[in-house]
Input
Amino acid sequence: MAGVDFEDAAQVEYDRNQTSSSPEKEQALVTRLGITAEVTRLGITAEHTVIDLGAGTGNFAIQAALTGAFVHAVDISQAMLTYAQRKAEIAGATNIKFHQAGFLSYEHQDKLADWVVTKNALHILPDFWKMTAFLRIAAMLQSKGIFYLRDAIFSFPPADYEASINQWIRQVAKPEGEGWTTSDFEMHVCEEHSTYEWIIEGMLIRAGFEIVEANYTTPTYAEYLCIKTS
Ligand SMILES: C[S@@+](CC[C@H](N)C(=O)[O-])C[C@H]1O[C@@H](n2cnc3c(N)ncnc32)[C@H](O)[C@@H]1O
Output
């Protein structure tokens, strides 16, 4: 684990701080993934097996489970899993299995998945290990299975790195006590492993994925919808 210590129970607070994930937003994502993927296959349904890697406090896993899909929620932090499990119980989402494991250690024992999802977690790994994670993700998916990735991924021109990073932090950092602060984002850039979109895309292709949709939502965030082709 790099950067933030997610084993620290206090980090579960991010659930309240963050603006990018809430039950409503994750429900919208579950629905949107279905619509986006309709050209190739149906969206997440009760017949599907979904793996959420770096599931955190479980917002996406719970909403995916409420569609009837069977969800494997994987996170390296027991503090996160304990919190997510409690939320799942309250939401009445029983078709979730929680696993304390990581991108590089989770052994998928169930039938091959229809979906693997990872949001705001992959930047924890340096690029060499991201490639390993992509290969492992491809191996968890059935042929034509779908991989959805969202993370802090940089699409600004590399020569503009200083201005782009500073602008990003100015735009998103919150005052102390109200969410992620300037020093949290500075730590992310210094100690964690967000990288450029052309590196991520090269890795996805080499892992056997076809990128069917790439959204650079801002110069510092991206999301990908990929299909396992080989
Ligand atoms: C910022 S949270 C994001 C959680 C959730 N996906 C979301 O979008 O709200 C990052 C999560 O990744 C987990 N994590 C850190 N290192 C990991 C690893 N090597 N493998 C899997 N999960 C990891 C952390 O414990 C944390 O729960």
Remarks:
- The two ends are 30 Å apart (CA to CA).
